[in-house]
Amino acid sequence: MNQEEIIELAKQAGMLQINGKYDIWIPEYLYEFAALVAAAEREACAKVCETLGVHPALNVYAGGPDWYKHGKECAAEIRARGETE
Question: Which backbone phi and psi does 16 adopt, to 5 degrees?
């Protein structure tokens, strides 16, 4: 995650910009910011799992080989963590 993405998440969390800096000490903003960062990191990890071992010639229309299915299952489990937290 780069600095621009972090700043965008801070804005989405409702953090206030004061003198060019974000006020992260208000607990509600900090919790929301942390949740947004965690969700972004989970999604990034899930995308890595989905792309492991994918080759353009791989026929995935029939579900693909087991190792390919495991990557998809891993991605689904990572995304599901956000639904229970």
Answer: -90, 135
Q: Record the pTM.
A: 0.66
Dump pLDDT digits (tens) for 51-61: 776 665 665 56
Cβ(31)–Cβ(63) below 8 Å: no
Rounded CA separation 78/70 (Å): 12
Handedness of CA 43, 79, 35, 15 (dihedral sign): positive
Residue 17, beta-bridge partner list? 22
Question: Domain boundaries in the chain?
Answer: 3-84
Per-residue pLDDT reduced to its tens digit, 18-29: 666 666 567 777
